[in-house]
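MODEL INPUT / OUTPUT PAIR
PAIR INDEX: 1
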Amino acid sequence: MMRLILFSAFILWTSLASAQKFMTEEGKAVFLSEAPLSSFEGESDYLAGLIDLEQNLLDFYLDLNTLETGIGLRDRHMRENYLETEEFPFAEFTGKLDDVPSLEMNQQMPVKAIGKFKIHGVEREIEVNGFLTWVSEDEINLEASFEVLLSDYEIPLPKLVFYELAENQKVTLTANLKKTQ
């Protein structure tokens, strides 16, 4: 019985080690704007991404036209006047893990990624802190967060009080990534 358990564990470990590319097209991105007179969230369930543990490569992108705040007029103004999604439709992060973790089943491992974040036509190097969890033989879970200063990316702040927007946006990403062949 012990041999069977050890053999099964070995098979699981080698299957993760041999195919270390994981992808998603259904991750979630949420931004939180906490201004003094107005707080709101925007979210999208269309975060796409890749984690390649063997090559130490991370690449995530989001079609900004899929962000929704719950108010259609605010969404339209956000896309047209501030994010300018006709010209700059995507936000993207490409980077590497500071240290590639040794993942164990159902154990959440802290990770730090360093790379380039691009939005509104401006690219800057950032650090993103998060967690990776190996949840099944062919799936890992990502949770990450970072902050975006709108002025760093030349995104103007609304002038109208009822559209008050914080300069600092808190961004949270969550995704289940499936192993690829």
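PAIR INDEX: 2
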Amino acid sequence: MIDSLLLPAMVLALLAWLVPKLLSMLLPEGIRPLVLNGVLSSVILCVITGGYFMALYVISGIPFDRILDLGILGSVVFFGRLAMSTALIWGPIMVLSLAGLPRTWVDVVW
């Protein structure tokens, strides 16, 4: 159970906290960049988790060409839906991470 459920959930939680922090180093301070940070963080986390699910399918023995039988768009939709289901894990943590970013602002007042 630890390696099949708990460890991936903990890694997703860590990524959900870390990705907005790293993006805040690249983006300027302010409300609009904070919203952009949230959107970019969500896209990055969806891509990471979609890739993780695809890797799990390949590791479990399903050939990559069999995964692409639905076509590229069909596969993106399938793995995107799986990735969005993990938003229950990383979504709240990402929102809390984003909510803490204005504390470190120097130039812009919240």
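PAIR 2 NOTE: The CA atoms of residues 62 and 86 lie 22 Å apart.
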